[in-house]
Amino acid sequence: MLKINYFASVREQTGSSSENLELPAGVHTVGELANWLATRGPAWEILQSQTDVLVAVNQAVSPRSQTLGPDDEVAFFPPMTGG
After folding, report:
1. pLDDT for 14-64, tens place per residue?
2. What pLDDT score was predicted for residue 81?
3. In CATH, what number is assigned to the domain containing residue 63?
């Protein structure tokens, strides 16, 4: 079961903090997952933005080309600044 977490403004936009789902058929990468989730509606389309949303797989920041496994944990979150 794939665990997906949504943080900060991504959580606010989607209205969801987390969910568990089976890895959808035909979805093999983070980018494909983001595109699949975006089909839920306009609030979810933010997940497709590579500049507004970062992704971590199993707690490591990952590119959209990262391959997913059925038991991975995926997190979508906005870029952070520090100072």
Report:
1. 999 999 999 999 999 999 999 999 999 999 999 999 899 999 999 999 999
2. 65
3. 3.10.20.30
| Confidence band for 80, pLDDT divided at 50, 70 and 90 | confident
Residue 42 CB contacts under 8 Å (≥ 6 apart), including other chains: none
* Res 73: pLDDT: 98
Q: How many domains does the chain fold into?
A: 1
User: The domain containing residue 72 runs over which residues?
Assistant: 2-77
Identify whether the C-beta of residue 45 lies closer than 8 Å to the C-beta of residue 34: no
The answer to whether residue 82 is domain-embedded is no
> DSSP character for 69?
-
Question: CB atoms < 10 A from the CB of 2, how many?
Answer: 18
